[in-house]
Amino acid sequence: MSDSSDITFTVWGARGSIFSGGADKIEFGGDTTCFSLETERGLLVVDAGSGFRALGQSLMARGDDRPKVIDLLLTHLHLDHICGLPFFEPLLCGKTKMRIWHANQTDGEVFRGTLECLMSPPVFPSMIHFHGLDLHAPDAGSAVALGIGGTARPFELNHPDGAAGWRIESGESVICIASDHEAGEAGIDAGIVEATRGSDLLICDATYTDDEIATRKGWGHSTWQQSLEIGSLAGAKHILMTHHDPERTDAAITAMEDAARAAAPNITFARSGWQRIL
After folding, report:
1. Virtual CA dihedral for 101, 105, 110, 111, nearest 10 degrees?
2. pTM of whole model > 0.85?
């Protein structure tokens, strides 16, 4: 990093609903949602999809230089956003603590119970190795103090079972996560515009095409056109489209990206390994 206040933002997984592999899905990757933000002060992660495993492997390669405490913000508890948690190697070594924040589920017992179910027989052998988890269910709208410096504040998304986006303010940068959102509820859409206003980087849902979304009402996702409208109203400097449909090939996503950039040049479709310094 060139400056102590710089944030390195990295995509570890940008696929939606379920991991999707194959020779035609290499460029954008097949891992599900996971993003990291790192400063000289620490590491923040948003969602623990299957891409969370690759992040863990990267941290283990650092040896003793890896962060000792990590903040993890969850948008919701659907499987594609937490399935990487049992395979995050730094937790298994006993030297890493993780603070997990989940604003959509304020019932702490339900929150813990869901993660215990994920990491308990017969779904997973045992949770006994995961003593480094510190779970928090903050009140809606309350700010979370981050180890990287700054705060994260949740806001409502329109998604089955509920979901929370996050506005992250650290140093002079604003990064907002508004994935897993179905546009069309005027009040919620307006709240997202307000919550993400002035973002340096806004991560948005671009799961479906116009033809597909016509038969997927209530599934909790948007088109890139709908997300672009929200991002434009919010004045986002750059919009990162994510949660790619598991059936979408590299060629199809590239075509969507080309069409989106013809409408607005400040758009990128997320790829595993994509980085931006903020």
Report:
1. -20
2. yes
Q: For 176, how many CA atoms within 13 A lie in the half-sphere containing its CB?
A: 30
Segment 56-102, tens digit of pLDDT: 999 999 998 999 999 999 999 999 999 999 999 998 887 889 999 98
In a domain, 89, yes or no: yes
Q: Is the residue at 3 inside a domain?
A: no
Signed CA dihedral, 52, 54, 55, 57: sign only: positive
CA distance 68 to 62: 12
- Domain of residue 241, CATH code: 3.60.15.10
Structure tokens at 127: 């949770």
Q: Which of 40-54, 74-88, 125-139, 160-174 has the lowest mean pLDDT?
A: 125-139
Whole-number Cα distances in Å, 255 to 23, 234, 262? 17, 25, 11
Could you tell me if residue 1 is inside a domain? Answer: no
Alpha helices in 200-249 (DSSP H): 210-213, 224-234
Count of the separate structural domains present in the chain: 1
CA 100 – CA 73 distance, rounded (Å): 6
Q: Is 2 part of any domain?
A: no
C-alpha separations of 49 from 86, 210, 260, 276 in Å: 10, 26, 26, 20
Taking CA atoms, 253 is separated from 28, 248, 265, in Å, by 8, 6, 16
Q: What is the pLDDT of residues 217-271, one digit of tens each?
A: 999 999 999 999 999 999 999 999 999 999 999 999 999 999 999 999 999 999 9
Burial of 5 (0-12, 13-18, 19+ CB in 10 A): middle
The range of the structural domain enclosing residue 72 comes to: 8-277
Q: What confidence tier does 1 reach under pLDDT thresholds 50, 70, 90?
A: very low
